Amino acid sequence: MTIDKSLARKISGAYQSTYSQLVRFFRNRLGNSNDADDLSQDVFTLWLNRKEQSPIKESRAYLFKIANHVLIDHWRRNQRQAKSTVEVDETLMDQNLTDTQADPSEILEQQQRIQWLSDAIESLPPRRREAFLLYRFDGLSQSEIAERMEISISMVEKHIAAALVHCKKHLDNQSNKN
């Protein structure tokens, strides 16, 4: 994709003047800053990748229009993930209860570990959780995840690795408490 110099200057100027406002916009609506930077970057990526090449008269207004759409998509993804996590928890608990002919203390320990893992996954930042769930539970490849989330494969790898480390630490901490 080639971008003419005047468009590049316009995008660069809009980035410098609007980026911090977009980050603030996302932080205020999400209640945290975990994804505010990522979503702000997504806004500019969408602008650069737009198919329509007609000139944009008011770039700030256009960027915030994109930001609203990005925010709605983000909320929808999180709702789907929360639903998916609950379904995974229920499936794992049902499977563990029916597959095991263990004594009640073993069943209780397994249920505790499942709950700890669920808590660990829920405490991940939303984009990291999404990448992890798509990889581990939906069985998507890293390249499929990168395409779906519109991020690089390297970023997918980082999200998955960090999620695994986070879950292991969380489980270790919980095991040490008991």
Spell out the key features of this protein:
178 residues; mainly alpha; Arc Repressor Mutant, subunit A
Structure, explained:
This protein has 178 residues and is mainly alpha-helical. The chain folds into two domains: 75 residues, no CATH class; 55 residues, Arc Repressor Mutant, subunit A (Orthogonal Bundle). It is built from seven helices and no strands. Helix 5 runs antiparallel to helix 6. The longest helix has 41 residues. The mean pLDDT is 78.
Short recap of the structure:
This protein is mainly α and 178 residues long. Helices cover 80% and strands 0% of the residues.
Per the principal axes of the C-alpha atoms, what is the gross shape? elongated
Find the structural class using helix and strand composition: mainly alpha
Low-pLDDT segments, ≥5 res: none
| Rg estimate, integer Å | 21 Å
- Total helical segments: 7
| SSE succession | HHHHHHH
Distance between the termini: 56 Å
Helix content: over 70%
InterPro entries: RNA_pol_sigma-70-like, RNA_pol_sigma-70_dom, RNA_pol_sigma70_r2, RNA_pol_sigma70_r4_t2, RNA_pol_sigma_r2, RNA_pol_sigma_r3/r4-like, WH-like_DNA-bd_sf
Domain RNA polymerase sigma-70 region: 15-80
Pfam family, one: Sigma70_r2
Protein name: RNA polymerase sigma factor
